[in-house]
Amino acid sequence: MNVIKNVLCPFCGCCCDDLEVEVDSNRIVNVRNACALGRGKFLSLGEHRLLKPLVRVNGELVETDLDKAIEKTVEMIKDSSYPVFYGFGCTSCEAIKLCLEMADLSGGIADNISVVCHGPTILGLQDMGIPSATLGQVRHRADLIVYWGCNPVEAHPRHMLRYGPLSNGRFVAGRKNRKIVVVDVRRTSTAAMADVFIQVKPNSDFEVLTALRVLVNDLDLEIEEVGGVPVEKLEELADMMVNAKFGALFFGLGLTMSYGKEHNVEAAIALVRDLNKKTKFVMIPMRGHFNVTGANEVFTWQTGYPFCVDFSMGYPRYNPGETSAIDVMARGDCDLLFVVGADPCSHLPRYIVERLKNVKLIVLDPAITPTVKMADVAIPVAYVGIEADGTAYRMDGVPLRLKKIVDPPPGILSDVNVLNQILRRLK
Amino acid sequence: MFKSAQAVVELVKMILISGRSLEQGLGKEASKFSKRYIDATTICQIDPEDMRKLNINEGGNVRISSQYGSVVAKAVKSKYAPHPGVIFMAYGPWVNSLTSPETHGTGMPSFKGLEVEVEPVEVVERSQKEG
Amino acid sequence: MCGKILIKNGFVFDPMNGIDGEVMDIAVENGKIVEDVKGADVKVIDTTGMVVMPGGVDVHSHIAGSKVNSGRALRPEDHYRDYEPRKPGLRSGVGHTVPSTFVIGYRYARMGYTTVMEPATPMLKQRHTIEELNDIPIVDKASFPLVGDCWFVMEYLEKSMFKECAAYLAWLLKALKGYALKIVNPGGLESWGWGGNVRSIDDSIPNFNLTPREILRGLCKVNKMLNIPHPIHVHANRLGQPGNYKTLIETMDCVRDLYDGYKPIIYLTHCQFNSYAGESWIELTSGAPEVANYVNKHPHVVIDIGQVIFSNATTMTADGPFQFQLHLLTDYKWVNADVECETSAGIVPFRYKKRNYVHAIQWITGLELALMIKDPWRVFLTTDHPNAGPFTEYPRVVGWLISRKAREATMKKVNARALKRTMLDSIDREYSLYEIAIVTRAGTANILGLKSKGHLGVGVDADIAIYDFNPRIIDLSRDYKLVRKAFRRAKYTIKSGEIVCVNGEVVKSIEGSIFWVNPSISHDLEDAVVSDIRGRFRDYYTIEFDSYIIDESFLINSRPIQVKGGV
Fold first, then answer.
1. Predicted complex ipTM exceeds 0.95
2. pTM for this prediction
């Protein structure tokens, strides 16, 4: 029996690195310090594990060996005229670099799942910048913490304890010295913990944020209610924000996915920017997966752009809406979809999934997912962060190291290994 | 206004939000074909007041329809009420029958704040071969 | 590995070895400079009528890490019109002020540069800096961790625990694979954690019993105690403020008594941004004469200029409060990125315009510094890339330094009022090629303590740049455009004995190395300090102690420099 400390949890963007994993004969038997989500991942390594490579023959998925699967993959990529390389939220930076090289070489599109997560945040910051910080700044200094359009109790369970209002900071010791504000369309479990809960009507965050900005700038609002929120409540919140010594806004997909998308985020950025004229205020996006931030980072330093990168002209081009994987798939423009570390057939609108019927689909995944079931080639790979190591980036851009805790089942390699083999044959 | 009889089944306009739920998060790491995941992603959470108005019992089925498709989901009382007119389903293949591929030039489809129509349907035994 | 090369008959400029344009042969074998090479397998490069110099060594250029990447992400508009297509053996990428990683390596190599220092890396995110440095091809690199406002450092210095501070920083350089100690706006970054700043080197720092002066002096002492090859690398307080030349001189002066006559003990970077006279923007003028006067009289100081280029730029520094002020002045988009317990960062796009009075003063200030400071071993050519301009414009700066005519051509177009209020127009000095070699390679390698770089003596790394112009025929002053063009596109660039660039085009991409400094100190002291830090780590950071450390295997081609620390 062996206890491995300082394990990075490969689930959400919190990237908690204080997990302790007990291993007995290559089996994980216990996990300490993890939340239910992280613990669940370590202890239930896939009820439906993909154990053998599969290729589609005459409409049916049949088992094959790795070499043949790789050969078929290389052949398909070489034959394609506009391949899309997609995913990367659940794998390491090392794997992402290899896929970018493949996309560069084959003149395709490289995109990552931030396009369906905080892509609008990226668009917002490209317009306006963003006043941000690492999570420890919030822990040590924040006396006001706002969660807007996110539900950390269910999606980032240890966030409030490690980085947020329940943490102990050097200058602010614990919950009683902080105020929590939650803004959402429903009274979630996170809202239940708030000192102030503001319920907004769906699709009205832009108006509410703008109204707050008006108030924070000491101008008058000549209406009674915005987005279902009485103006007195907004005045109260504006006062709390301006009078905070250090405020933090954590925001999630409630802003990026609702009507307005990047404009909602821009309104939030404008608000926090204006608050910096009066006090200290930062904002941090709640990234969903443990390395979607890393995908943005690697994409940016290697291509100049965080997502939606098109190599078809021989150099990186960027135009979300045109070069985003989603829009390319929706228009039926791509002829091959290569997926690593994602399950688009579960998570994308069905309209888009149906357009993949005539698209060659290659997927690398540890588990059998709906995407695997639709694939033309499916190659099993190790769970990154459990059976394979690598680098990942936390939601605030702090880079951390994923560990290999146990060996994958026999015959199953890391995605880095498989991708290297594919790349070698493509070159 | 037309006369409405008490027990008429109405097609009610609501706003659909898809998002994370703890159960869906736990389920997806177990497996996308696990009972846990399927249970988590085939339910929809409705404000109890709305359920009353719609004549739906806890565990009853509703058909939710959008411009892009429709799906039948099991209705449960939302613990996060009140949120009249708002219906929540966890991310997954089922709610994605309804979501919109329209990205408004951003690459981001429309997963939240969608206009849908909701109606109760006959309670039917769920097929064992679901998924 | 790599073979034999004979660079024949060129005009060699190798200031560290006192060679000023002599016609000489340079021999290369197995990646090093050797006495001679013989045999049929020698590649002979005929450099008759050409200039041969050591490969360029850039002492300060923001090329890698969290804020650089945020700058890239922030500015897709910077990249659209400037891109590099994929070629066989070369990756595609984009420019312009914040190029992607592959492009950085290629463009430096094209100018004959072979070593580049990333001068400001946040320690908590050091792994990110190393990942990007790993991805920059061809050139050798190193990074300077930001230590000035680190809580552990400030606590040690508060209590004058210099030995312990030294031990902590020795461990830090080793753990993070850092090269030198970087200080930015000391005290100002911690103040910015509350939205504030410091106004002088004797200002107080909230919650710490310490002044910026004490941080500077403490770290200067520690740097000397550890025998770190490069002096403390300092971005002074009050950057970008009218009248700040006084603070710059105070900063230089505050460690004067620590000088032991041996080598410079403080490096002040991008001094142009800190050399303004006048009490307001309207009265702004150059304070370079005063600063130059001080530097000329005081050998303990060494600087780089941070020369403005009239083009697009992206300002990015660890000076969070300054960057916010710049945003308020310009209304351009603004990224802020504080790092817990350590530092901050800010990014604001910018454009320097010739007709703008303030920008013209800035341009003048940088050149005045370079032309009024007499010792070329103590004033280096940088643009604080990408703050004052992109590194691809270094040849333009060379043009201004070697030719009064070049300066006149630009002076004709800049704001006339700025010229009238400053001295640049009256300066005739023109740099020689020998001096250019010092301020772009020999001097910079020397101040960095990179013994295997910056010169062409036997045994050093074969990093060589060959420029296609004849210094015996060309009048540098009159034909500056030709010289500039030659420096833009090296005739040949040789890196680690490999020909990587021919006629200004990259022909081979190789991996560079990452240098770092490993000061060895007493085991007992190190154990005691590390144990103390480890025990307190969770109270400070939101990551585990072990996550902070970067294994040497993470670096591509790790090149540690061992030094014997004196504690």
1. yes
2. 0.97
Minimum-distance CB partner of A119 among B69, B92, B108: B108
Q: Does B34 touch chain A (CB under 8 A)?
A: yes
Cβ within 8 Å of A, C 288-307: none
Residues of chain A with Cβ-Cβ distance to B39 below 8 Å are none
Identify the pLDDT of residue C495.
Answer: 98
Residues of A in contact with B50 (CB under 8 A): none
CATH of segment(s) A119-285: 3.40.228.10
Q: Nearest-CA residue of chain A relative to C546?
A: A6
The per-residue pLDDT for B129 is 46
CA dihedral A250, A299, A94, A43 (to 10 degrees): 30
pLDDT at B131 over 50: no
Neighbours of chain B (3+ CB pairs under 8 A): A
B-chain residues within 8 Å CB-CB of A189?
A: 79-80
CATH architecture of A54-117+290-426: 3-Layer(aba) Sandwich (3.40)
Reply yes or no on whether the pLDDT at B2 is more than 80. Answer: no
Class of domain C56-448: alpha beta
B22: in domain: yes
Calculate how close chain A gets to B112, using CA atoms only, in Å: 5
The pLDDT assigned to B5 comes to: 42
Give the residues of chain A that fall short of pLDDT 50: none
Yes or no, beta carbons of B111 and A120 under 8 Å apart: no
Select from A276, A398, A402, A427 the residue whose CB has the most chain C CBs within 10 Å, as the one to mutate to test that interface: A398
Put simply, the answer to whether C539 touches A302 (Cβ < 8 Å) is no
Q: How far is B78 from chain A (nearest CA, A)?
A: 9
Amino acid letter at B85?
G
pLDDT digits (tens, 9 = 90+) for A181-216: 999 999 999 999 999 999 999 999 999 999 999 999
- CA distance linking residue A378 with residue A364, whole number of Å: 6
Q: If we measure between CA atoms, which residue out of B57, B84, B89 comes closest to residue B73?
A: B89
Per-residue pLDDT reduced to its tens digit, A138-165: 999 999 999 999 999 999 999 999 999 9
Half-sphere exposure of A194 (CA within 13 A, CB side): 25
Cis peptide before C96 (omega within 30 of 0): yes
pLDDT interval class at B125 (50, 70, 90): low
pLDDT of residue A425: 97
pLDDT of residue A301: 98
Q: How many CB pairs under 8 A join A and C?
A: 182
User: Which residues of chain A have a CB within 8 Å of the CB of C93?
Assistant: 302-304, 315-316
> For chain C, which residues score pLDDT lower than 70?
1-2
Which stretches within chain B are classed as H helix? 22-30, 35-41, 48-54
What is the architecture of the domain spanning C4-54+461-506? Roll (2.30)
Of C66, C73, C94, the CB nearest to A306: C73
Who contacts A308 (Cβ-Cβ below 8 Å, separation ≥6)? Answer: A109, A111, A115, A119, A318, A319, A320, A323, A324, A325, B107
Contact A142, A248 (CB under 8 A): yes
CA distance C300 to C122: 27
Q: How far apart are CA A41 and CA C458, in angstroms?
A: 58
pLDDT value of position A45: 82
User: Which residues does A25 contact at the CB level (< 8 Å), separation at least 6?
Assistant: none
- The angle subtended at Cα A180 by Cα A174 and Cα A184, nearest 5°, is 150
Query: Cβ atoms within 10 A of the Cβ of B7, count?
Result: 6
Count of domains in chain B?
A: 1
Confidence band for B123, pLDDT divided at 50, 70 and 90:
low
Q: Is residue B118 part of a domain?
A: no
Chains touching chain C at 3 or more Cβ pairs under 8 angstroms? A
pLDDT at res. C390:
98
